[in-house]
Amino acid sequence: MVDCGAAPGSWLQVASGRVGPRGRVLGIDLKAIDPNGLPSNVQVVEGDVFEADAPDLLGGKADSVLSDMAPDTTGSPSADQFRSARLCEQLLDRLPGWLRPGGACVMKVFEGEAYPELLKRAGACFERAKGYKPAASRAESVEMFLVCTGFLGDSAPGAGSVPARPRPQRPAGW
Questions:
Q1: Which of 17, 52, 104, 160 could cross-link to 64 by cystine, CB 3.0-4.6 Å?
Q2: How many domains does the chain have?
Q3: Where are the alpha helices (DSSP H) in the chain?
Q4: Per-residue pLDDT tens for 104-118?
Q5: Active site residue 108
Q6: 99: domain range?
Q7: Active-site residue (options: 31, 61, 108, 120)
Q8: At a CB cut-off of 8 Å and minimum separation 6, what does 131 contact?
């Protein structure tokens, strides 16, 4: 598992428990993450997520990618939501090299004008892509999560030179 924007590290602890003692978790953030108290299956890297070679650090492609990244806010909700969506777009660009086919990705995004296009793009890369706003989130918060499962890998449009395969029908409720 790769955790992008992992500081201060609480999701790393949760992820470690989910992957179990034989699984590996890689946490990357621009901010330092104190490794003290983290389980032995967690590796932390201080640096730019988009310059990291996650598969090399993990020893292969990940089963899942979690992103809690957010831009430094400017105070302009319109500008901030576009910058947030851009971070997610950049992450989607890297998934063919980072995520195994069938894998999952959860990304935090600020809901706004750019969100529908991001959801559409994620839907082309995964069997299922759906927005989720946790009940614990404040009503006025624009933070939500894009939950994607069934990564199509190189067959996703724009992910490589292989043409896209027909997408399966989504179950009711999606």
A1: 104
A2: 1
A3: 10-19, 54-58, 77-98, 115-125
A4: 999 999 999 999 999
A5: yes
A6: 2-155
A7: 108
A8: 111, 115, 119, 144, 145, 146, 147
